[in-house]
Model the fold of this input.
Amino acid sequence: MRKEVKVQILDSISAQLQEYPNFYITDISGLDAEQTSKLRRECFERGILLSVVKNTLFSKGIDAMGKEDAAAVKAALEGPTAIMYTKVANAPAKLIKKMQDDGMEKPVLKAAYLVESGAYVGPEHLNTLVNIKSREEMIADIVLMLQQAAGQKIAGILKTMEEKKSEE
Done:
């Protein structure tokens, strides 16, 4: 590969890493055309960018990020590698889990880097990554707690008003 092409690819990787703060390193080798098409479609629907990369170029892209904790995932850059870039931290983990639950052996998680929580190396972290709440899920939980608290407060006020009314 010519140096100019490598520079262009490295620039593209760096741009993806800036746009998408979280990424998963996966192995999708051995998928047939139908399975690959299904994976790409599912990624598109979930806002995940799927890209096959050369390990050495992606390693250089990680170095260019300048984040020391991201370097831990470089150990997973062996063999065939596909990167799932995402803005929603747990989206690729949920997709990988769903596909495995549907009977597909691949994709397999090799490593992940989440900007909020750091590096995860190895497929044993898949369930942990699935259970990480996205920003939207955390906001929904907070709204629900506020609604419940407000509901309890209103119920307390109504009860007090009812008691005062019955005393009169």
The helical segments are 3-19, 33-45, 55-65, 91-101, 126-131, 135-167.
